């Protein structure tokens, strides 16, 4: 029986360190996003990643986080590769990288479907995570690329959740677009009314995404 003890310890440790959620945060940098709005998204993200409640949850559940910037059909890039958060120091470094992140694209369209397709391909690197979530942050509806509803169906078949945060100046145009065409059946949309609402909205959204109940 003594020889089984090391194996038991390994299995126990593996269980403790299992990744609960892989969260892919995507940022719209299309033509409608000016410099101030880009900074709003990156600073809001950076602040959220320093929030004590978010950090505690990420560490507890070994959450994997990555950041994608996207705009037109051929314009998607992994700006911050996957990072599994195992201690608070990692979250702080991730926050600093998000705040210092250079804008990847300018003067391009809004190809939401291609952003989701690109994001889906990134989950191979975190296949062991129990849940996989794509977070779409945008201030516009799709004006280029494929039918996002077809891509959403593909994500649902793969067991990937799509959530969204709509940056609205007035009305609910972006919110309605995300609800009707982008988010998955188990997903949700949060609306940031004007720019001043964005920091609180992204904090609440990330906290909800990394909790054990989504939808």
Summarize the SSE layout with pairings.
Blueprint: H1 5-16, E1 21-28, H2 35-48, H3 52-61, E2 64-70, E3 76-84, H4 88-99, H5 112-121, E4 131-138, H6 148-157, E5 160-168, H7 173-182, E6 189-193, H8 198-210
State the distance separating the first and last CA atoms. 45 Å
- How much of the residues is beta strand, in percent? 15-25%
- Taken in chain order, the helices and strands follow as HEHHEEHHEHEHEH
CATH superfamily assignment?
von Willebrand factor, type A domain
Instruction: Please work out how many helical segments DSSP would assign.
Output: 8
Poorly predicted regions are 7-15
CATH architecture term: 3-Layer(aba) Sandwich
The CATH topology name reads Rossmann fold
Q: Would you mind describing this structure in some detail?
A:
By secondary structure, the chain is α/β, with parallel strands linked by helices. The chain has one domain (18-210): Rossmann fold. It is built from 8 helices and 6 strands. Strands 3-2-1-4-5-6 form a 6-stranded mixed beta sheet, sandwiched between helices. Strand 4 (131-138), helix 6 and strand 5 form a beta-alpha-beta unit. Helix 2 packs across helix 8 and helix 3 (52-61) packs parallel to helix 8. It is globular. 40% of the residues are buried.
């Amino acid at each position: 029986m003594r020889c089984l003890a090391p194996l038991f310890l390994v299995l126990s440790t593996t269980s403790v360190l299992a990744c609960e959620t892989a969260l892919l945060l995507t940022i719209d940098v299309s033509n409608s996003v000016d410099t101030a709005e880009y900074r709003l998204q990156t600073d809001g993200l950076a602040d959220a990643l320093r929030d004590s409640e978010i950090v505690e949850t990420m560490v507890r559940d070994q959450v994997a986080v990555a950041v994608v910037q996207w705009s037109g059909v051929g314009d998607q890039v992994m700006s911050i590769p996957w990072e599994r958060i195992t201690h608070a120091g990692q979250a702080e470094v991730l926050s600093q990288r998000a705040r210092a992140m250079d804008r990847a694209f300018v003067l391009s369209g809004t190809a939401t479907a291609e952003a989701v397709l690109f994001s889906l391909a990134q989950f191979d690197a975190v296949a062991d995570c129990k849940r996989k979530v794509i977070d779409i942050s945008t201030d516009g509806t799709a004006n280029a690329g494929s039918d996002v509803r077809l891509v959403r169906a593909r994500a649902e078949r793969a067991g990937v959740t799509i959530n969204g945060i709509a940056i609205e100046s007035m009305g609910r145009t972006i919110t309605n677009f995300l609800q009707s065409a982008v988010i998955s059946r188990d997903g949700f949309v949060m609306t940031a009314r004007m720019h001043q609402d964005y920091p609180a909205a992204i904090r609440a959204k990330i906290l909800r995404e990394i909790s054990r109940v989504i939808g």
